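Bug: token stream looks shifted between consecutive jobs. Job 1:
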Amino acid sequence: MTQYWFKPRRYGAGANPVTWQGWAVIVAFPVVAAVVLLAIFAVTPPIVAFTLYAILIPAAMVAFFSFLNKKTDGDWRFRWGGDKPDKV
């Protein structure tokens, strides 16, 4: 059985972390992304660095949100508060 790290938000769209693993992922992603981007900008010419930046950031965000969606207990959709998320 999979333990979910996030639960759907009651208002709006998205999910909130509910375990320490979820919070760790939320904190680690921007830290790792910043370190990788600083390393890229430190060792490559600016035009190559900006090109890699333009490719890697969207790819990393798609992978990150895909992972979050898989670790969420329920579906991601807009909620108005009246409909409760699954298994809250």
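Job 2, same session, no restart:
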Amino acid sequence: MTILDFSEAALAKARANAANHRDKIEFQLTDLTMFKASSTYDLVLAFFYLQREIFPALLESLRPGGLLVYKTYTRLQPKFGGGPTHPMYLLEENELLGAFPGLSILYYQETVRDRGVAELIGRKPLS
């Protein structure tokens, strides 16, 4: 397992939460603007981070049959306060649904309750 983050504080929290599993996890302090898929993974998780330029690299980093789980804010988030407000960091309606061509979409939902959020689970084809 590999955890990537640009925040040393976030990585420290991840290490603390990993408890007895720390030796099975590679923690990498990295800027995702420079993300290049150097390995392939069965599962890639992306939460509340939006940088459209890395979408192709996220796809490339999945093994055949691998899953992508992505959850982040939509353009409706500013109505609720908190979170980002700049459009660069907010998804348009159904944008995430079309962002990963070639994935089989297993689950997709956009919600507007206490925040505006889009969620996607997609599987990379086996061949």
